[in-house]
Amino acid sequence: xxxxxGKQLQQEGQPQVPDTPPTxxxxxxxxxxxxxxxxxxxxxxxxxxxxxxxxxxxxxDKAAASAKGGLVEGVREEVMLIKWPAPLKAVLNTFxxxxxxxxxxxxxxxxxxxxTEISNAIY
Length: 123
Known about the structure:
Blueprint lengths: L1 H12 L12 H6 L7 H4 L5 H20 L2 H12 L5 H36 L1
Keywords: Membrane, Transmembrane, Transmembrane helix
InterPro entries: SECE1-like
Protein name: Preprotein translocase subunit SecE
């Protein structure tokens, strides 16, 4: 009996949740667009002949693309799209890079020799 009263007290303290969801009101139903079937659902599946025609067309397109020269032709097209510098500017940039590398090497070799002399003097 005490258990029954305890359960009733617990049930009174908790809100009651209905077992079924509430039905949407008329205003809510008007705002929601009607579910329309997608174009994929309304299309009929392609017949075997259509699939074979599409596959043949794809094979022809692939053969035509490879007949253009393939990889070599693609590389040539890409090289033509590159904006190349003038020959004089390219030579000057090359010598600039060589000068920077040589200068950096000289500085590092100088620092190395100084540190070697200091290390020999200490030890």
